[in-house]
Amino acid sequence: MKTSSRVPHRTVGSTTLSARANAVAFSGAAVISFAFSMAMSAQADHYELAIITLSLALAVSCGCLVNAVRSSSQNPVAIMAWIYVVFLFIMPGLIHLNIDKFPFFSKSYSEQTALTGSLLVLLFVTLFGASSKSGPLAQSPSKRMHGDHNLFLTLAVIGTLCAIAVIGVFLIGTPVFTRRIAAINEARGSGPVFLTLLAVTKASGFIAFAIAVIMIKKRFSYINVIILCITGSIFVFVNNPLATARFVFAGYMIALAFIAIRPTVLVKTYLVLAAGIMQVTVFPFWDHLARGQRGSEFNFSPVNYLSNTGDFDGFQSTLNVVDMVAEQGLEFGKQLASAFLFFVPREFLEWKSRGTGVDAAAHAGYTFTNISAPAPAEFYVDFGFLGLAILSVVAGRTVAAFDRAYMQAGFEKDVYSILIPVVAAGYIAIVMRGSLVAVLGPVCISLAMAAICAAIIGRGRRL
Q1: pLDDT by residue (tens digit) across 264-299?
Q2: pLDDT tens digit string along 136-180?
Q3: 423: Cβ contacts below 8 Å, ≥ 6 apart
Q4: What distance in Å separates the CA atoms of residue 6 and residue 42, rounded to the nearest whole number?
Q5: Would you call 329 helix, strand, or coil by DSSP?
Q6: Which residues pair with 413 in a beta bridge?
Q7: What is the mean pLDDT of residues 296-314?
Q8: C-alpha 101 chain-centroid distance
Q9: N or C: which end of the chain has fewer CB within 10 A?
Q10: DSSP designation for 66
């Protein structure tokens, strides 16, 4: 007897109910977060308008995060973006405004600067949130295409990636991969060639391991286990957690997690809860180890960590950019162009920026300038409020496109095409944090390598 293969579809009534439920969830989360923020700020006698504005931005962001979690769409990139915005950007910024103390050099800012920075964030989260939604696919999951792949071609891709990683280690030197992150910072003087080679080496190890994870998820076999062990060993060596930036290593782990586990509503709920807990437990301890303090005592103080650590300097960096633009004017594309031309040595482009965060920190008089610059600041420094509005929408639509590619991977497209959106999901927090000059190189290299590998392996299935 022939069974029906009709694709399920939503009726107008169910779509209306879903839209109403989303509106109620958004409103509820927004109202609760705004009320909580204002209650915590009741005693503050400074930055009143900035606190109200940034609280509104938190309300919008919490509403978007709740709707992203509740959505039946598998949207890992949007989820990770909102986790960064809520937990690592806006919440610490509100704490800093309330206590009138910012992480770097205990600086304070004028009321106007704080209000302008808060308005930037509010505009960004509103437009980014409105444009980053990705609806569910119309095709039934039962129609997934798990077509056979050319095993030899897949192994050839893995072997090539492993060879690139090993060659990279020999060219760069093992100390960069075995010592703490300070060794990498010392070697940064080698310029973009060194940084590009380092990014290619790390990305090769990660993508080879990710392909092995997909292989063993498709079919468990002894040969796949052996491949997984080999690629896993290379991945761990070239991406040693103590010699790799925490956001980078966490991004790799997030990407692997989204390959292994599809983000259902329950999974997304656990992920958000875990992010909130890790923010005040795992991250400070990891920071303690990464900065070479293993021999000293670790003092657990979440409030002190959120208030004083440079890990949560995003809003302060935004205020530095506001002050810089007020005095020096807009950059008119200089910062974004510098980021996308990461592979060109500065000697050939004398106008090339060191990064928005670096320039703003130098303008503020910092003695240490390796500082972040969140997306709202990056967009604003080049093109002002109008550019911020346009680029926020572009960023939102890009996130939605990556999430749709993630959902399509496996039945509308080849299963290995999942490599591209999971890399985006892993790196989105770094991109949102900035500075783009510092992070866009590894992101573009990883995405390009993922796309090339997915295309080669997918081509083998069609031959």
Answers
A1: 888 888 888 888 777 777 666 666 565 555 555 656
A2: 555 544 444 445 567 788 889 999 999 999 998 888 877 777 765
A3: 255, 443, 446, 447, 450
A4: 56
A5: coil
A6: 409
A7: 67
A8: 26
A9: N
A10: H
Token code pair at residue 169: 């280690």
Distances in Å between the Cα of 91 and the Cα atoms of 39, 312, 455 are 14, 9, 40
d(CA 414, CA 411): 7
Residue type (1 letter), 390: I
Residue type, 309: T
Q: DSSP string covering 9-62, please?
A: ---HHHHHHHHHHHHHHHHHHHHHHHHHHHHHTTT--S-HHHHHHHHHHHHHHH
Whether cis (ω within 30° of 0) applies to the bond prior to 435 is yes
Q: Say if CB 150 and CB 218 are below 8 A apart.
A: no
Does residue 430 sit in helix, strand or coil? helix
The backbone torsions φ and ψ at residue 84, rounded to the nearest 5 degrees and listed phi first, read -60, -50
- Residue holding tokens 């329950």? 266
Beta bridge partners of 409: 413
DSSP state of 311: G
Please indicate whether residue 341 or residue 188 has the higher confidence score (pLDDT).
341
Burial of 160 (C-beta count, 10 Å sphere; 0-12/13-18/19+):
middle
